[in-house]
C-alpha cells in the first residue's frame, strides 16, 4: 500500500528557502515512513505555478483544468506537508488563497505537518497563532511539532535543537500518524447521481 504525501510549497522565488525546507521535510517524512514499512509517493505542488489559476478560481468559483487535479490530489492525500513564507506575521497571501479555494471537507482527518520560513526567528510564532488554527479550522490532524527556519538556522550545528532535529522530529510524528491510519479515500459527490437517460427510458 503506497502512502501519498502532497507537499504544498508557497515560496515565491526560484530557488526559495521555502521550497528547500519543503524538500527536506518531504525527504525526512519519506524516510520515516519507509522505516515503518510503508511505501511512499510524494507529489509536490508549487503554488507560484498556479497563482493565475487560483485567482481565476476566486473570480469564477470553479477550478480550471490546471488547478482541478491539484485540489483533487490534496483531497486524496494520506498526508499534507504545508510550507509558507511568513509575511506581516502570518502566512502568505498566495498560501491563504490556496486554502480559500479548497473544499471545506478536503482536509478533514488528514494528517498535516505545518512549516514556514522567515527573515527572523521572531516570525516563528506565526506557526502557532496562524498556521495551526487555520488547519484546525479545516479539521485536519496537525502534528505537534511545527518547523520554522530563519536564515541563521541553515547549517547551524551549535544549538540544542537544530533545524535538522526539528525536521526529523516533525517527520517522525507525521509518519507515526500516517502509518496507523487506513489509506485515504474520498468519494465523488456525483458518484451516486442517477443515470437520467435510464430514468427517462423507464418512463416510456
TrEMBL record:
Gene3D superfamilies per UniProt: 3.40.50.360
Transmembrane segments: none
Pfam families on file: FMN_red (PF03358)
NCBIfam families: LLM_duo_CE1759 (TIGR04037)
Coiled-coil residue spans: none
SUPFAM superfamilies according to UniProt: Flavoproteins (SSF52218)
Domain NADPH-dependent FMN reductase-like residues, every copy: 4-154
Organism listed in the record: Pseudonocardia kongjuensis
Protein's UniProt name: NAD(P)H-dependent oxidoreductase
UniProt keyword annotations, A-Z: Flavoprotein, FMN, Oxidoreductase
Domain of life: Bacteria
Amino acid at each position: 500500500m503506497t502512502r501519498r504525501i502532497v507537499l504544498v510549497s508557497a515560496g515565491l522565488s526560484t530557488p526559495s528557502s521555502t521550497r528547500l525546507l519543503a524538500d527536506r521535510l518531504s525527504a525526512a517524512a519519506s524516510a520515516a515512513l519507509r522505516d515503518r514499512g510503508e511505501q511512499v509517493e510524494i507529489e509536490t505542488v508549487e503554488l507560484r505555478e498556479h497563482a493565475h489559476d487560483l485567482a481565476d478560481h476566486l473570480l469564477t468559483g470553479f477550478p480550471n483544468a490546471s488547478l482541478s487535479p491539484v485540489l483533487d490530489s490534496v483531497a486524496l492525500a494520506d498526508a499534507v506537508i504545508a510550507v509558507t513564507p511568513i509575511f506581516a506575521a502570518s502566512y502568505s497571501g498566495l498560501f491563504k488563497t490556496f486554502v480559500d479555494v479548497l473544499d471545506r471537507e478536503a482536509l478533514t482527518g488528514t494528517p498535516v505537518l505545518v512549516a514556514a520560513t522567515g527573515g527572523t526567528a521572531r516570525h516563528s510564532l506565526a506557526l502557532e497563532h496562524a498556521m495551526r488554527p487555520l488547519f484546525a479550522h479545516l479539521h485536519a490532524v496537525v502534528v505537534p511539532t511545527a518547523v520554522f527556519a530563519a536564515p541563521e538556522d541553515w547549517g547551524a550545528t551549535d544549538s540544542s535543537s537544530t533545524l535538522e532535529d526539528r525536521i526529523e522530529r516533525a517527520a517522525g510524528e507525521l509518519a507515526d500518524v500516517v502509518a496507523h491510519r487506513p489509506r485515504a479515500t474520498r468519494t465523488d459527490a456525483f458518484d451516486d447521481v442517477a443515470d437520467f437517460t435510464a430514468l427517462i427510458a423507464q418512463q416510456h
